[in-house]
Amino acid sequence: MKTEMHGGVTLESWSPDEVQTALAANKIVLIDVRTPQEYMFEHIEGALLMPMAFFDATKLPGQSEKRIVLHCGSGLRSERMAKAAIAAGLHQIAHLDGGFGAWKAAKKPYIGTNMGNGAPERVAP
């Protein structure tokens, strides 16, 4: 995990392995900030959608039990939204370093779209 200080708060950048482990242990809320179209085409199973265009940090769930980890396609949008969450008063926030691209490059499972019938399907590279 990499960290940087932003507004007096530590912003964490998690690796795909760290996110996968924490998600499997039910220790995080994973929020996808990509567009609905990107999410519909492929996404990390269990990730919730809060598109960047409609991102409102005040609507994020409380963090008394689980840390919030944001992700996007490459890590740029999620880092920006994490900084917006810090500016809105959140004190624990993280994002997936490298985004969904890093997730796929690390050969992690996800939900994709079957191009033959348009149905969602689990992809385990």
TrEMBL record:
The keyword Transferase applies. Keywords: Transferase. InterPro entries: Rhodanese-like_dom, Rhodanese-like_dom_sf. It comes from the Bacteria. Residues 24-112 form the Rhodanese domain. GO terms for molecular function: thiosulfate-cyanide sulfurtransferase activity. It holds the Pfam family Rhodanese. This is Rhodanese-related sulfurtransferase. It comes from Puniceibacterium sediminis.
